[in-house]
Protein 1
Amino acid sequence: MKNRSAFLAHLKSLAEAKEDSITKCVAKEAFNCEESVETWFEDLPEYGCKSGMVPFLVYYDDTKAFFMKYYEEILEIKDAYEYELGEQMKLDYQLANHLAWFAFEYTASKIYTFYQAHSESLFFEIED
């Protein structure tokens, strides 16, 4: 993958951001994974948070706490997604659980998709 070093540096800056956000959570979790960062970003859309890939979003009490902590940001992400989609999301009875997973997975997808789409034009190669 081109510009991997630049992507990792950018991801590190997101993980070390002063402002607490879902983006920061995603970046920190990507660095804490056992496999490569790229593999983690590629596996998350396939298996999702419900698979246990994100240890702090496994149990309902944890997803509810995440939902409450990032409530405003989650609603902004949901609204933006619905606008892109052109329709409302269909959610079942575990609203906090599903929206916490959705916001985390969607944010991860945006980070990795942005990197893949713009790696050559926006990132420069950093010498190791």
Protein 2
Amino acid sequence: MTRIGIVTCANATQDLACCSHLCLRDLNEGRGMFSAYQTNDGAKLVGIVSCAGCPTAVGAGKILGKIRSLIETGVDAIHFANCVVALCPFQSQFTEAIRESFGETTLVMGTHGAADKDTITAFKTAVGEMLCQRKESLADVAGAMCYVPNARGHEPAPEQKDEAS
């Protein structure tokens, strides 16, 4: 049985609450990129990590600690989840850093079934919109609870107005 590790996109798992359902479904059912393991008595998941986050142009090695944790479990192959393959502008830098540090490790680009170009484009657009939606922040909540002057024009909380009079 082939021992598998999966690397997911931190934005997808942490910001968008992806639970890797499709990756795990196809792993368990031997579909998608995991179908290649059917001749080797299937595949077994031994670890799943999110990437280390977008590293900037100089920090691709940031992912190595995450990969090391998978390597230490004895993985035979590490799959970059489809979200990494479709969305990550640092994928080639990550791959290069991993190959330099863990050359013998098998890297596979993808998890669940491949999508056509139009589907990938639509996926990227939808994810971009989701990531860029305005979310309420802690500053918004605090500003609504007490007087915190800012550019948004928060007013003092009612009890602070009375005290000021």
Protein 3
Amino acid sequence: MPDMETKDYREGYKKFTSRAKRYAEDPEKTRGLLSKATAKANQNKSSLSDIWEKFQLLIDMVKSWSNGDYRHISKKSIIFVLASILYFVSPIDIVPDFLFGIGMIDDAAVLGFALNQITGELEKFKAWKQSRTIEVK
């Protein structure tokens, strides 16, 4: 049974990664995805309270990367982040979103995992963003 579960997770990851690659190549699709993710996050803010600030920073980073403003992150990392966001917005995942009260558990866990994996990248982006704010002033 564990082999089957591992295979299912691997297949799911491949599916979201494959889609994420297409999003990484299309800024308009990425903007639409980020809009959906932001709307879903706003509707479920209490479920995401532990990761809310980092999630907002993540969205800003992907937006800046997609616009071509920020390129100090590998494409592989962006694809990983996009795959995580695609999972988050997908209504069909390990725990379906329509299950009231528990439907966001897996989504929050996937986002939390992704945020932990790229904490260093987020810190670099945050510093870059702050330096740009100082330059503008």
